[in-house]
Every structure is written in structure tokens, then in C-alpha cells.
Amino acid sequence: MGSLQERIAGHLSALEADGLRRRLVPTDPAPHGTLRRGDATLLDFAGNDYLGLSAHPALVERAREWTSRLGTGSGASRLVSGTRTAHLDLEARIAAFKGTEAALLFASGWQANATILPALLRAAPGAMVFTDRLVHASMHAGCAAAGVRQARYRHNDLADLRARLSGKGADAPARIIMTESVFSMDGDLADIAALRAIADEHDAFLIVDEAHATGVLGPRGAGLAAGADVVMGTFSKAMGSFGAYVAASRDTCALLSNAGSGFVYSTAPPPPVLGAIDAALDLVPGMDAERAHIAALGEQLRAGLAKLGLDTRGSASPVVPAVIGEVEATMRIGEALAGRGFLAGTIRPPTVPKGTSRLRMTLRASHRSEDIQRLLEATSEAL
Ligand code: PMP
Q1: Where is the Aminotransferase class I/classII large domain (predicted)?
Q2: Which of these, 39, 71, 247, 276, has the minimum number of CB atoms within 10 Å of its CB?
Q3: pLDDT tens-digit profile of 35-76?
Q4: How far apart are the first and last CA of the chain?
């Protein structure tokens, strides 16, 4: 048995033995989309700053301006005294961007996802939830926090979803479907129009996570989830800063601002972050050329990886996986790529299912076609 400290050490040793212990390695931003790691300068194919906005002068400047005017912190939670005019103005802008009646800011995407479901369950006790098997951990956390009956349908398998909705789901007092529009580790897309039709057939609510779509896919970069009942997305990826939004009907947002514990009991997002989001909302709708460039790089990278015999899991977004399989080989190939000047994500269980460890290569508007070519050559050598 031993003390809790000894058990912690034992748990860490077990992770180490399986090659699953993670360590925090500093990678500091350097010019031209590179990162400094130790003595090495690596071209970043691991982050989610798809449009390179995190270093954009307009975001940096507006964050600075709003900080000068409003301070570094909001000082309280939204319902106490933390709501600034800037929060409400920004929420109105987000709703307009997403084409919904209303929107709410959240401190993070994780927090939004962990909050939405428990709040909805207050209004609809006994609701049953149908989640794509590959949805993000934060949505599973929301299901666990809500204590719901959860059915996990096979990834993007609409027949399986239909069968489950007609089976156990038919007796539930309400039904909720949860998916991502761009899957974070596979980079493939959900068919939102088809999910909307299924939701209508079964009188179900549709919740879509647009963390990896916001800014980079869909008309004006507004994502792919038009028509969903609740859309959440993050400002921490293509939007270049931090935090998240939920866009939905006025009533749904009012429910979340009353019963969403991650909203109610958390300090309001701070002015520098609000300023950066505001500037990103000015820029992103006009970045069609960057979005088209990223899409073309995606085609090039996927075609090249397929030639190397690697499975890219149906990716159709700036997230391009290359499945290696075993943990050890994945880590080794990731390090070999770093040795050649490229940082790709190395993703292993429990983030992805056992046996599907992978490189996760993400694209940025600053990448050039030559960079992809060199990345493919380096991957070929590393393999
Ligand atoms: N949903 C998805 C699909 C994500 O990939 C992430 C980020 N890892 C989140 C939610 C959480 O967002 P945040 O990083 O803002 O907490």
C-alpha cells in the first residue's frame, strides 16, 4: 500500500514504463513560425495557431490598448461585478460572426465543454447524450459532471447514431447529440447537415465543438456548424489568443449564464484577452487567401504522407495525422523529425486509442509549399 506520496511515485513509474509519462518541455516562439527548443530552431507543425495570429501586431496592440484602459484583470466573476461593457460588446460580435441570437465568453474551451451539459441537464433531467466516440476529453468531462446516460456512437457513423437514438434514446425524456466539426486528433470533419437532419428526426438537440474549425474553415472562417443548437469554439487556436465562446439561442445562453458553473463561478475573462479576440474578429473574416493557402498545403501534405504509406485518417483540415501505431516508434520518429528541424505533435494514449499513436502535423498560413516538401522528405528519412 504505502503512503499517498509513494502511490503517486508508483503511478508515475508505471506511466514511464509504458512510455506514457509526459514532460513539460519549453518551446519558445521565434521568428517565421519557428520555435526554440534547447539549442534547436524547429519549424512548428505542432501548434494550433493556424493563421499565425498570436504574434499579429493588431492583436498585440489591441491587447495592450485594452489593458491600459481596463487593467490586467476583470476582478470578479461575470454575475458579481466582472461584466464589463467590453464583454457584452464582444459577445454581440461573436453572435454576429456565428450567426446566432446570442453568445457567451468562457475562460477556456475545456471549461465551456465541461459546463454546457450539466447546465442543460438542469433544464432537461434524464436527458440521454449521444457522443461521437472521438469527441474531446472536455465533453466527456461534461457528461461525467452531469451524470448523464451517455451512448458513444462509432466515429462519424450516422447509421450507428440513428440506431442508438431509436433504441434506448427513444424512451429518454430528451436527447442530445455531441460532435466536433473538425476532430482534433484525426482532422476529419463531421457532416453537420446530416447530423442536423438526424437530430430533427429524433427531436434531439445538436451540440458542436468548433475548436479547430473557428477561423480556419467555413465561410468567413466562421466554422462549419451553422444550424446546430449549441456551438462552442475556442479563441486559443486559429483566433490567436485564449478563451472560448458558446453561441446559441438567447434562452440557451441565459440558461448557461444562470446554471453553467464554469461560467458562474469563474472570474470573467481579462481585458488583454478580450482585446486580442476583438482584433482577431476584425481580421479573420477577410483571411480567405490564408484559408485557401492552408487548404492547398493540406492537400500536398496528405498526398505526400499517403505516398509514404501513412494513414491520414480522412483528414480534411489543417490537422493532418500520420498514424504510426506504437508509442515507442511514434516518439522515436517525432524526435528524428526534430533532429531535422521540424516539430510535429507526437500523440499517444489516452489522447488517442491504443495502437493508433501518431504524428499530428498542423498547418499554418506561414508555411510554404517548400516547407511541406522538406517535411515530407524528413518524414521519409525518419521512418
Ligand atoms: N475542444 C477541442 C476539440 C479541443 O481540441 C480543445 C483544445 N485542446 C478544447 C476543446 C479545449 O479548449 P481550450 O484549450 O480553450 O481549453
Answers
A1: 42-378
A2: 39
A3: 999 999 999 999 999 999 999 999 999 999 999 999 999 999
A4: 43
The residues with which 231 forms a beta bridge, in sequence order, are 208, 247
Closest by CA to 269, choosing from 223, 229, 236, 231, is 236
* Under 8 Å between Cβ of 73 and 222: no
Given the residues 54, 74, 156, 184, the one annotated as active site: 184
- Residue 146 makes CB contacts below 8 A (sequence gap 6+) with 117, 118, 120, 121, 129
ipTM value, please give it.
Answer: 0.99
Annotation says 136 is catalytic: yes
Q: Which domains does the chain have, with CATH numbers?
A: 20-51+287-382 (3.90.1150.10), 58-285 (3.40.640.10)
For CA atoms 245, 247, 249, 250, give the dihedral sign. Answer: positive
| Binding site membership of 184 for ligand 1 (Cβ less than 6 Å) | yes
pLDDT in tens, 341-356: 999 999 999 999 999 9
pLDDT digits (tens, 9 = 90+) for 307-338: 999 999 999 999 999 999 999 999 999 999 99
Cell of 306: 499517403
Contact by Cβ (8 Å): 53, 33? no
Distance CA 382, CA 378 (A): 6
Contact 339, 331 (CB under 8 A): no
pLDDT at 32 over 90: no
Q: Which three cell numbers stand for residue 170?
A: 427513444
87 vs 6: CA distance, rounded Å? 46
**Smallest CA separation from ligand 1 atom 12, residue:** 109
Q: Is 247 left (phi over 0), alpha (psi -120 to 50) or beta?
A: beta
The alpha carbon of 230 is separated from its chain's Cα centroid by a whole number of angstroms, namely: 15
Rounded Cα–Cα distance for residues 197 and 194 (Å): 5
Residues 121 and 143 sit within 8 Å (Cβ to Cβ): no
For ligand 1, say whether the CB of 48 is within 6 Å of any of its atoms. no
Beta strands in 281-333 (DSSP E): 319-325
Catalytic residue (one of 44, 91, 209, 229): 209
Confidence of residue 1 (pLDDT cuts 50, 70, 90): low
The model carries a pTM of 0.96
